[in-house]
TrEMBL record:
This is Stage III sporulation protein AC. It comes from the Bacteria. It comes from Qiania dongpingensis. The keyword Glycoprotein does not apply. InterPro entries: Spore_III_AC (IPR009570), Spore_III_AC/AD (IPR025664).
C-alpha cells in the first residue's frame, strides 16, 4: 500500500464529509446518504486489490 493511496482515501473522506454537511443543512438527506455511499464504494474499489493480495499471501503461507 502506498502513501498516495492513504492520501487519496483521506481526501475522499474530507470531501465527502463536507458535501454531506452541506447537503444535510440544505435539507437533502437522501442525497447526503447517497454521497457517503458513493465515497465508501470508491474507497472499497481502491482497496479490494490489496485485500485480495493479502488473502492470497495468507493462503500461500498456510498451504505449504
Amino acid at each position: 500500500m502506498t502513501v498516495s493511496l492513504i492520501f487519496k482515501i483521506a481526501a475522499v473522506g474530507v470531501l465527502v464529509s463536507v458535501i454531506c454537511q452541506v447537503l444535510k443543512h440544505s435539507g437533502r438527506e437522501e442525497h447526503a446518504f447517497l454521497t457517503s455511499l458513493a465515497g465508501l464504494l470508491l474507497v472499497l474499489y481502491w482497496l479490494v486489490p490489496y485485500i485480495y493480495d493479502l488473502f492470497e499471501s495468507i493462503k500461500a503461507l498456510f498451504s505449504l
